[in-house]
Amino acid sequence: MKRLAYAAGLVLALVGIDAAQAEAKEGACQQATPDTFVIDGVIDAALTACVEQAFAPTTSQLILTSRGGKAGEAMRIAEWFEGRRLTMTVKGECNSSCANYFLPLAGRLIVEPGAVIVVHGGIDPSLISRQLAPDGDMAEPGVDLAPIAEQQRAFVARNGINPGWLLYREADSLSVERLDGALADFDARTKAWLVEETMARSCLPNTVVEYRADRRGEWLTESRRRALRRQNIARSNTVVCN
Question: Which residue, of 21, 44, 51, 195, has the greatest Cβ tally within 10 A?
């Protein structure tokens, strides 16, 4: 079994979405129709409260635009999605905690033209053993990560999530568990991975995955790819979960 080496610990930036989309709305959620729920913004306590108040049991579709946020809050929100096999549609981006904890619960995943999914790992023993702050805003500075790691362990076990999806590493290790293949544009400066269709289909085997191309037949334009490289985000390329 081949393992990929990956060093986390840097802040994840937005990945070139439109300026209007980049202005994430704190705690934004809406039951748009009886069957469609929309999340558009940063994952935080306000968003958790919004979901707890607004999410309807009739929901079958989830529309997502989020650069991520707090891991613990994301898992609390994700409990509302467990077992529902929702159709999840990514508009713009679903990164960090949005990708980690929402998408593996989807019965069907639709990635709209130009939309991106970016992962940089969860709260794992490697992060804790090296006493690093989690990427982006996954936890408050100085917070005890051990309870969040246990929350993640239980969440992963309960939902049968492949550890490779979370770029899981054991303590004092940079080797990611349960992943094979080769990244593109990967070097020592890499912060995160752009999840392409091959990786998504492999790591989310219980999900029907559909990456929708634009009218030119492209999923991601070359200008967007260059923007990702400038932000030290590697393409998942041939990476698959085993």
Answer: 195
State the DSSP string of 72-98: HHHHHHHTTTTTS--EEEEEEEEETHH
Residue 140 to residues 66, 94, 124, 169, 171, Cα–Cα distance (Å):
18, 20, 16, 21, 21
pLDDT score for 127: 84
Q: What integer pLDDT is reported at residue 88 of this predicted model?
A: 98
Q: What is the pLDDT of residue 52?
A: 96
Chain Cα centroid distance, residue 201: 14
- Contact criterion met (CB below 8 Å) for 21 and 65: yes
For residue 175, what are the β-bridge partners? 5
Number of domains in the chain: 1
Indicate the helix (H) or strand (E) that contains 223: helix 222-230
The CA–CA distances, whole Å, from 27 to 46, 49, 115, 195, 214 equal: 5, 8, 21, 25, 30
State pLDDT tens for residues 130-183: 766 665 578 877 788 889 999 999 999 999 999 999 999 898 888 888 999 999
List the domain range (segments joined by +) for residue 21. Answer: 4-241
Say if pTM beats, i.e. exceeds, 0.85. Answer: yes
